[in-house]
Amino acid sequence: MKLLLKFSLIFLLVFGLGLAVAGWICYSFLQQNARNQVLQQAKLMMAAAMSMRTYTTEQIRPIIDMRSRREAFLPQTVPAYAATESFNYMRATYADYTYREATLNPTNLRDRAVDWEVDVVNIFRNDPARSEFSGERDAANGRMLYLAKPMRAAKSCLECHSTPSAAPASMIRFYGKTNGFGWKQDEVIGAQIVSVPMSVPVKMADDAYRRLMLSLVGVAALTLLMLNIVLSWTVVRPVSRIAAAADAISKGNMEVPELEVKGKDEIATLAQAFNRMYRSLKEAIRMLGQ
To answer: Domain 50-197: which CATH class?
Structure first.
């Protein structure tokens, strides 16, 4: 086996092991990075939903006279309704994301928290200092990643959710007086929850991993080619010349020119030693001939 081929096989083995280790480390990193990126997008969407709630509370509701609200209740003036409907429009672009304002005792029963959402809400109720919570859960369509933030009853919420008698009569006619009452100011009454399938960050990580590994393989191949060229000029060719001269001398050819010595590295030292040995051998043969 030729020297250059041996070097190439050694480099392939070393680069292969290096790529395997780098791939394993990078895949874990990319998975976590993709998960964080999805959660960051969820935070932005949740902030957009919260902005819509604030806009509805501070700008839409005040322009509707309280008297007309008592005569004709409009769900569009409810912050939770406005935020949920706005997010549904956003899903035309981000179809994988879903938004819920999971509430323990909602007026609109579509917002009632299911079992796992109740657990999330209770996390915030048991730890009032917690501002957000993320996790994973199993769903009918696979593993889901979710981000949750607590919802607290503001003073403006109590206009409709303190007691049935304080709520607009039109709202009672619309939703009834069974649900959505008894809220207390600053009490955690639910949670904003944005959910996305785990397949989304997994696909993001897989795509990034594929691009990264292709780039690393390309760089490794180019590096291997450059190493082979450098080794060929600096090691393999000088050693090949020494080997060819030694082979010719061993066959009785004593007219081989001395090797050219360049530099002060090990190859140059070997060439100098070969030349000294060659001159000594020629002198010994000359003396034996005499």
So the answer is: alpha beta
